[in-house]
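Hi R.,

Here's the input for the 2-amino-3-ketobutyric acid complex you asked about:
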Amino acid sequence: MSRHPSILITGASGEMGHGLIDRLSQNPDRPIITLDLNPLPPGTGAKVRKEFVGSILDPQLLDRIHAEYEVDRVFHLAALLSTRSEFSPALAHKVNVEGTLNLLEFAQKEGESHGRPVVFFYPSSIAAYGLPDAATKTRAGRVKEDEFNFPTTMYGANKLYCEHLGRYYDRHFRQLSAEPKAGKIDFRCIRFPGLISADTVPSGGTSDYVPEMIHAAAERKAYACFVQPDARIPFMAMPDAVDAILKLTAADKSRLSRVVYNIGAFAPSAGEVEAIVRRAFPAADISYKLDAKRAAIVASWPADVDDSAARTDWGLAPRYDLASAFGEYLIPNIRKRYG
Ligand code: AKB
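And here is the predicted structure with 2-amino-3-ketobutyric acid in place:
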């Protein structure tokens, strides 16, 4: 039990949660509560005040957290990613949309209870975009936030809808009620590109081919890439993604011209990644075995994004470009990971 201003992180055992807990736990003034279906990785648990193993679809569990803690920051990372969502679209809707609604209702209750706006960070994705064909994708180049919002996956549709849901809670919630209810949630959102971590290998995503290729080479395992060599979408190193979350959530709201922001760092083709991986791991066994359906999802995502709003409004400044992401972060740390 703690009435101390606290942070709630859902999906904390996932790739992004790992790095976020490391950074947020450096500030002892705001203890961290985590909620995930899976227990936290060894060592991470010691960095949080309380670890709940359970579901964002469990209202009693959220009521218990509401009763025991005073949360004024929510990082809602729990989600089913794009590939997994295509095999279970109804479950994906339940987790990605109903789960997010549960967390928005939780944050609204928290804000009404302690009186301070609850900063609610929501990770959206380039999956919210849908480019209709290769020529349009090439012509579109670096897309802006309000362009091509026609997702072709359940995950992308979920993410786009939850962006609007968050904006509603932030600005228009129960707008017909006698006294104003909106403004208890300070909703902030980043549309992430593909993310590459040296510490974890993703599962269930469609951008996974880049991290999978790197980790397989380091483990001396054969890797058959499921997209073509010329498949191209934006990526970012995980430390820069975590840094972006912390910068956006710390920014003065008056500086924010939008609720949803693009961020990007580099946009290599699968073949360009292969060349870098082969230089680092000359014995790498990399081939291409096209999965036309998954490749079509990647083809519908933009070749790159225009992140000028994030750079102007809250100082997005990724540390890693393509060369340094591999040379300074991924390769050295992945080598260490696999000995
Ligand atoms: C996925 O591949 O589903 C995610 C994403 C791009 O949001 N990594």
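One thing worth noting: Residues 89-114 form the longest helix (26 residues).

Cheers,
M.
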